[in-house]
Design goal:
The structure holds two protein chains of two kinds. In chain A, 77% of the residues lie in helices and 1% in strands. Chain A is mainly α. By secondary structure, chain B is of the alpha+beta class. Chains A and B meet through helix 3, helix 7, helix 11, helix 12 and helix 16 of A and helix 1, strand 12, helix 7, strand 17 and helix 15 of B.
């Protein structure tokens, strides 16, 4: 193992070194730092050209300048990085990078999580219904999404989900055919996903249609789009629904202790509905407090589960804790929603809550809840863009690996010894189906961190991708090299981590020394 | 056992429900935002972020900085939308008190104040002079050591202001009046663009000196500056110049308010690095160009399409992106938006190279200058300028026209007069047949012309598609020499004709001298004409406006006569604003473009 690590480290350093040389030379060929001076008609441009040439040392060969850059960069090893700077404004590269990394992480974190969860879920369902209409439909949709160009999707989303939706909010009248379309569409998808005999399909279709109709009517009649909110009743209904759903997936509904523990958690959520509202009235919310309360909810869930006890108390506790998190989330969302109309009516928002660009509304600062809504209003479109495009690949991966796992002997064995289908899928198949993903996800995250160039540019988020594209455009080499260095290192690390993950998760694989 | 648990759970729920009996109060704090100045605020979209409050340094000289400086610092003169120089006497006046020697007296208005209450006075003008003239610098530009930030590093006793000016080096150390309100500047020789040299819009002298020398009293700081300049005291001027060069560079709002003092209508109140800046009405401002909208936010975004959608979504209220057919069309399709097309300062032109042994070089014809001139004339006669306008520019700009002068910009006050007399009408229409006849008249057949242009630029590629058939019809063999690195190849002799754009930043009469003067820095064609050089020499020292126009007309005429090349068109510009919120916008061709005339802006009720 140690040999393996040492060897990997050495090749990694070599890879980073070689890639920086190649990139430095390529970038140097691509950019022309004197471009703006060449068509300058002001007097004295010759002096300016000479001064800039001297400043950037343009007369010396590119490899010498590279070595100069490398000597600064290598000082990162002793803790005093000198990655050069943007000579147009004098900002050090390190400063540019730290700002850009934060922005990019804010942008891609939610999108990546959503894409993975959604992709894996859809992929597994699609694998379970292999060669059904649902499977074919999803394959079609995911390939369509996969092949969509980001800039096109982004522009369409801006046009329809921001501009048109904001217009619509001014006078929210939903046409009857839209209701019909949503109800029939949802019912068809659910029916296809659940599958089964014709009678069962019909039943599922009916139930799904009724539920979605109820939701649509609720949205319509309560003016949900203008004054959203869950209220204690909906928190209760949704909480109980989650308790049943999570128990069904986790331990099965036949495990009564788990079910009761989850239901208790849901009931606690309802009971705490008003106290929590009071809490937010007296306490200024902030992300640490909100996340802390989320953690507290998980601990309470564990406690409730343990209190219900039984021979498998930790299983019960796990189910209860898993339920506690979304129930706490409901309370958070409800509180957030109650600030919605204050946000929409704000003088800077003027009834147009969904934004097409930037990280936040300039000059907007009205407390935690409104600021959070502002952040969400700005995150919505870029997140959707990233999710739509990357979710497709995850669903393909997880479908393929689930199918492979389901064909293994041990699954047949599990079924043969009489385990329920839930246990077979969730316990035996699901976990192993995730192994290939463990090697894809780290690399994918790095690609997103470095590669959201188009999304960042279109949505005007000044993250890593923007940094790269912008400085290439402005003919400034140091920030580009800083970007490439970070990405190169991260890529090497991500591949390394993926290999290690793989070895840890799958005992059949050994890291060769 | 189990019953007890259920009972416990029920009790917990009941307890919670009991608490719930009294409904929680509405959070009143959140409604504050609704009475916020949001309604009294507009957001302007701009492409490049601000980075320096001193736009007189060679580093800070950028439109991105100039637009915010325009809103925050008063000037004694400014360009209006017709490119005429207007004066702002509420801030200060200047007058030429003598022609020989050229003497100009600047007087700052009595109630002109910086936003910290300190009066604006001659010390501020003197700092601008010291910086622009270079007279107090102890070292030359090429002796300056710069650190990695491109900021000059000055040694002990070294003075270097990182700035340049065409006229101020010709002046003597100015005289300051006893009340510190006036400054008199004497030129050693006449200078044509004397009005553009000092306008009072520089950074605050007292802020510079206080920060550079750790002085706390503003008036003492001003006096220190005046004394130091008068005595040429390098020990004091060294730190002052050093602070002036880089002390005002910031990208997010510094804690020290003296770094962004305002003498204009607005004062900076917020700046997020690379995202936006907020400016609010300056309470100390009493001049003639007041803020008509209390708060202006400038939001930065490089992507013009994204800006158009921001405008459609009400996120920004005013924007002036680079004009392309797509952008103009997108802006015109937005409801409730007013779109105004016009011209910007850059202009496209075609250059013919006369010193590379090509078809336009007399050397090719054994030194027969006349033959070379006729070949050039033939080339230009065939050049389909009007076609280019009709097909590429007219869709972007209503009433687009060709530019018919080499040295003055359309719309400038003297343009019509000069165009009427400069002989540009000879090239009004493309005439391949006449061009062919010209070629025949000097016995040159099928000369090969290598035409260079930017390879990755759609508009230029389209231009080439338009000119190629017309030139071929006239008998030229057109060789496509498009190049991605066209900028660095300019002037290297590997092409015979090139079309690209010059940008201009002022209407100063000496602006384009370097392009046409023998050996001038921007003279990329090898063109040389001693008679015209003499006219330039005279023009640069002529302060009489009528004589200036005469000389400009003669120069223009010579350029057309000698078939130097042709100016083609002014770059189209576009500005769009939310007409349901904002009115009174009047974009100008020169910087600060869309921000021009902000005092006429008003909100629609």
């Amino acid at each position: 193992m140690l040999m393996f690590l040492a060897r990997r480290l050495m090749t990694s350093v070599l890879v980073v070194l070689v890639s920086t040389v190649v990139m430095y030379v390529l970038v140097d060929i691509a950019i022309d730092p004197l471009e703006d001076l060449r068509t300058d008609t002001r007097p004295g441009a010759e002096d300016r050209i000479a001064a800039r040439t001297a400043m950037l040392d343009l007369d010396s060969p590119v490899l010498l300048r590279y070595l100069d850059w490398l000597s600064g960069a290598s000082r990162c090893l002793i803790g005093s990085c000198d990655l050069g700077r943007d000579w147009r404004t004098g900002t050090p590269t390190t400063e540019l990078l730290s700002g850009a990394v934060t922005t990019t992480l804010q942008l891609v974190t939610v999108a990546t999580l959503l894409a993975i969860v959604l992709g894996v879920f859809v992929g597994i369902v699609s694998a379970l219904r292999q060669y059904s209409g649902f499977d074919y439909g999803l394959t079609f949709v995911s390939f369509v999404l996969y092949s969509l160009p980001t800039f096109w999707v982004a522009v369409l989303l801006k046009q329809f989900l921001a501009i048109k939706f904001n217009d619509f909010l001014a006078d929210p009248q939903i046409a009857w055919w839209f209701h019909a379309l949503v109800v029939l569409g949802t019912a068809t998808v659910v029916m296809a996903a659940v599958g089964g005999s014709a009678a069962r399909r019909l039943r599922v279709f009916g139930v799904a249609a009724l539920v979605s109709l109820a939701v649509m009517l609720y949205v319509d009649l309560t003016d949900f789009l203008v004054t959203p909110g869950l209220g204690i009743v909906l928190v209760g209904v949704l909480g109980v629904g989650m308790a049943f759903g999570i128990t069904a997936l986790s331990t099965g509904l036949s495990d009564r202790r788990s079910l009761y523990a989850s239901l208790t958690v849901a009931a606690l959520g309802v009971a705490l509905y008003y106290p929590v509202l009071y809490l937010w009235y007296y306490v200024d919310a902030s992300w640490p407090i909100v996340l802390g309360l989320g953690l507290l909810a998980v601990l309470v869930g564990l406690g409730v589960g343990l209190a219900w006890g039984g021979p498998d108390r930790w299983t019960v506790a796990r189910t209860a804790a898993l339920t506690a998190l979304p129930v706490a989330g409901l309370l958070f969302v409800d509180r957030l929603m109650s600030s919605w109309d204050n946000y929409v009516d704000h003088g800077l928002i003027r009834g147009r809550p969904i934004s097409t660009a930037s990280r936040r509304t300039p000059g907007f600062d009205s407390g935690f809840w409104l600021n959070t809504l502002d952040l969400f209003g700005h995150l919505l479109l870029p997140t959707l863009t990233l999710v739509l495009i990357s979710f497709a690949s995850y669903s393909r991966y997880s479908r393929a690996s689930t199918l492979e796992v389901l064909g293994q002997d041990y699954i047949r064995t599990a079924r043969a010894k009489g385990l329920t289908e839930r246990t077979v899928i969730m316990r035996h198949a699901f976990r192993n189906a995730l192994i290939p993903l463990a090697s894809i996800v780290p690399v994918d995250i790095i690609t997103l961190v470095g590669g959201a160039v188009i999304t960042e540019r279109i949505f005007n988020w000044r993250g890593m991708g923007w940094l790269f594209a912008n400085y290439l455009d402005q003919n400034v080499i140091d920030p580009i090299m800083g970007y490439l260095l970070v990405i190169a290192i991260l890529a090497v690390v991500a591949n390394f981590v993926a290999d290690l993950f793989y070895a840890v998760l799958d005992p059949r694989i050994r890291v060769a020394a | 056992m189990r019953l007890r648990r259920i009972a416990a759970a029920t009790t917990a729920v009941a307890l919670g429900a009991a608490l719930a009996a009294c409904a929680p109060p509405e959070d009143e704090n959140e409604n504050e935002g609704n009475s916020d100045s949001g309604a009294e605020r507009i957001t302007v979209g701009w492409n490049q972020p601000f980075f320096s409050y001193n736009d007189d340094t060679s580093n800070g000289n950028a439109t991105a900085n100039a637009i915010l400086v325009y809103l925050t610092r008063s000037t004694m003169n400014f360009y209006d939308a017709e490119q005429e120089l207007q004066t702002d006497e509420s801030f200060g006046t200047y007058e030429k008190i003598s022609d020989d020697p050229l003497t100009v007296k600047y007087t700052v208005a009595d109630d002109a104040r910086w936003s910290d209450g300190t009066p604006v006075d001659a010390a501020d003008l003197l700092l601008a002079w010291a910086a622009g003239s270079g007279k107090v610098n102890t070292i030359e530009a090429d002796q300056v050591e710069t650190d990695d930030n491109n900021v000059p590093v000055l040694g002990e006793g070294q003075v270097y202001f990182d700035s340049s000016s065409a006229g101020l080096p010709l002046t003597e150390t100015p005289e300051i009046s006893d009340d510190n309100k006036s400054m008199t500047l004497t030129y050693s020789e006449p200078f044509a663009d004397w009005e553009l040299q000092i306008d009072g819009g520089g950074v605050a002298a007292h802020a510079t000196v206080m920060n550079a020398l750790d002085i706390t009293d503003p008036m003492e700081a001003k006096q220190t500056l005046i004394d130091a300049v008068m005595a040429n005291d390098a020990t004091k001027l060294g730190p002052i110049s050093s602070f002036w060069n880089s002390g005002f560079d910031f990208k997010s709002l510094p804690e020290d308010e003296s770094l962004y003092l305002s003498s204009g209508a607005y004062v900076l109140t917020e700046m997020e690095d690379g995202q936006y800046a907020t400016l609010e009405e300056n309470p100390e401002y009493t001049g003639d160009r007041p803020a008509s909208i209390p708060t202006v936010t400038v939001q930065w975004n490089e992507d013009p399409n994204a800006q158009a959608q921001q405008l459609a979504n009400g996120e920004i209220d005013l924007v002036g992106p680079q004009a392309t057919t797509d952008i103009v069309e997108a802006l015109q399709n937005i409801d409730g938006t007013e779109v105004e097309t016009g011209v910007e300062a850059s202009y496209e032109h075609v250059d013919l190279v006369v010193d590379n042994g090509g078809p336009f070089d007399p050397a090719t014809y054994g030194g027969d200058a006349e033959t070379a001139r006729t070949v050039r004339q033939a080339f230009l006669t065939a050049y389909p300028r009007q076609d280019i306008i009709d097909r590429l520019i007219a869709p972007l700009e209503e009433g687009a026209e060709t530019r018919d002068s080499f040295i003055v910009t359309p719309g400038s006050p003297t343009y019509d007069e000069i165009v009427g007399a400069n002989g540009s009408d000879e090239y009004a229409e493309s005439d391949p047949a006449a061009a062919a006849a010209l070629l025949e008249s000097v016995g040159v057949s099928a000369p090969t012309v290598r035409i260079m242009f930017a390879a990755d630029n759609v508009r230029r590629e389209n231009q080439f598609e338009i000119i190629k058939p017309a030139l071929e019809e006239a008998g030229f063999v057109v060789e496509d020499a498009r190049n991605v690195d066209w900028g660095s190849k300019l002037g290297d002799g590997t092409y015979d004709a090139a079309f690209f754009a010059w940008q201009s930043t002022s209407t100063g009469v000496t602006e384009s001298q370097a392009t046409y003067y023998t050996g001038g820095l921007n003279n990329l064609t090898g063109y040389t004409d001693p008679a015209m050089d003499a006219l330039w020499d005279e023009l640069s020292v002529t302060t009489d406006e009528d004589r200036q126009v005469e000389l400009q007309t003669q120069i223009d005429q010579m350029l057309y006569d000698n078939a130097y090349g042709l100016p083609l068109f002014q770059f189209p510009s576009v500005a769009a604003w939310n007409s349901e919120r904002l009115e009174g916008v009047e974009p100008a061709p020169l910087s600060p473009t869309i921000f021009h005339g902000y005092w006429n802006w008003s909100l629609v009720d």
